[in-house]
């Protein structure tokens, strides 16, 4: 039975198919241009020498990067078939966006003193008297309760500032 399956024709056919596939896959870089400057082997040396440039950073090639060579390709090269990574990428990007928004929001508050070159703090009453109600306080305030001026507090703060200046504290 086995002798009927393996014949000279089937062996030749399989060999030719294998040989054609091997030759076709061995010449993958045929579409890429050769290097303009080739290294010349010294005449005193013997042996085979073939120089091909590494096209990974060549801007003249249409798609020069090899897989995993750049950070983008390293992260996203297998997304066509690796669907289980989608939730992880979504969570990472959502975390990054939340981190940026929370950081930006935190630095909008007057309690954060970034510029230490000035002697008075950013929450000093002299600086915030005319715009304290406009500053960021809480993230979600749909009714605008925290954005109202408090005139009683303004009078109290003015009196406290005058008393501190009389004592020489300010």
Which segments are poorly predicted (pLDDT under 50) over 5 or more consecutive residues? none
User: What's the number of extended β-strand segments?
Assistant: 0
Strand content: under 5%
How would you describe the shape? elongated
Distance between the termini: 107 Å
Helix-residue proportion: 40-55%
Secondary-structure-based class equals mainly alpha
Could you spell the SSE succession in H and E letters? HHHHHH
Please count the helical segments. 6
| Mean pLDDT over the residues | 77
List keywords for this structure.
single chain; 170 residues; mainly alpha; 6 helices; 43% helix; elongated
Reconstruct the topology from this structure.
Elements (H helix, E strand, L loop, with lengths): L1 H4 L2 H19 L44 H6 L9 H23 L16 H4 L22 H17 L3
What do you see in this structure?
The chain is mainly alpha-helical. Among the domains are: 58-108, no CATH class; 113-170, no CATH class. It has 6 helices and no strands. It has helices at 2-5, 8-26, 71-76, 86-108, 125-128, 151-167.
Write a brief caption for the model:
This protein is mainly alpha-helical. Among the domains are: 58-108, no CATH class; 113-170, no CATH class. It is 43% helix and 0% strand.
């Amino acid at each position: 039975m086995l002798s009927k399956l393996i014949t000279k024709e089937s062996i030749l056919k399989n060999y030719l198919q294998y040989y054609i596939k091997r030759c076709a896959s061995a010449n993958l870089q045929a579409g890429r241009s050769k290097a303009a400057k080739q290294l010349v082997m010294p005449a005193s040396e013997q042996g085979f020498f073939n120089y091909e440039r590494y096209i990974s950073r060549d801007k003249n090639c249409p798609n020069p990067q090899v897989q995993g060579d750049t950070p983008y390709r390293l992260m996203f090269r297998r997304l066509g078939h690796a669907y289980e990574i989608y939730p992880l990428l979504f969570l990472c990007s959502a975390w990054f966006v939340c981190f940026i928004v929370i950081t930006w929001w935190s630095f909008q508050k007057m309690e954060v003193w970034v510029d230490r070159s000035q002697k008075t703090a950013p929450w000093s009453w002299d600086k915030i008297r005319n715009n304290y109600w406009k500053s960021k306080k809480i993230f979600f305030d749909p009714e605008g309760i925290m954005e109202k001026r408090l005139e009683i507090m303004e009078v109290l703060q003015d009196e406290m500032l005058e008393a501190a200046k009389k004592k020489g504290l300010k």
